Amino acid sequence: MQLGLVFYYLIAFFVNIITFSNTSTIGKHLLIPHSVKQTRPIIDSNIKTIYLSFDDGPLTGTPNCIDICTKEKVPATFFEVGLHQSRSAFGKNVYQQILKDSALFAIANHSFSHAYSKYISFYHHPDSALLDFLKAKYYLKPTNNITRLPGNNAWNLMTKKRASELVSPLVKKMDSIGFNVIGWDLQWRFNKNGRPIQSPKWMAMQVDSLFFYNQTVTKNHLVILMHDQMYRAPQDSIKLAQFIQLLKQNGHYTFQKLTRYPGLKPNI
Q1: Domains by residue range for the chain, with CATH
Q2: How many CB atoms lie within 10 A of CB 115?
Q3: What does the pLDDT look like over 51-65, one tens digit per residue?
Q4: By the number of CB atoms within 10 A of the CB, which of 123, 177, 200, 219 ranks highest?
């Protein structure tokens, strides 16, 4: 009987070793569910910084983005289009809403025309494209030199420089006069009707995963791209609030404006 017990414990011991080994290996290739807080992936105790950014405003969805970020008390950066800001009283009023809360929000330059959605032609003429950004700067009057290219994920900071062949001539010109070009690490995409595709939970899991695998442009810093118009409907703006609330559950995450992003060139 004693031999039977010894045999039993030996088998249990080796099964536990095999199970632990397999679980560790599998865990390297799986996203850990965001809802299970005790198993969410945290590499170390370093703070991870999230930068919420909204593109293409002022538009009808912009006020909802402002209201949600204000309620949740999270900073955000609004990449504004000069044409949208200047062409109507609505655009000017929404712009002022962002501007008056400079502690929470930053306004950044997203061009004047947004290339009129003709991106190839826009980038094939870098001199006129640069003038487009300078025109936006005149209308938006941002207090920073942060820009984002329309429809293109390019970076040009003091040390981070990433640009495709298409946009590289423009980016070099922008760099020469002191603009910071900031892209994104993660995008919340929208469908043909302008509504969010992914769920808030899925997006939060992607944030966890990008931090866990160190797949951001700058370690421990993650820029999220969203578009104002995605949240114009109440049922979609709720998703934005849910996403922010899920991120806030992680005690290692903090939020900042992109004016605090590492490696920015000084203002011009």
Answers
A1: 51-257 (3.20.20.370)
A2: 19
A3: 999 999 999 999 999
A4: 123
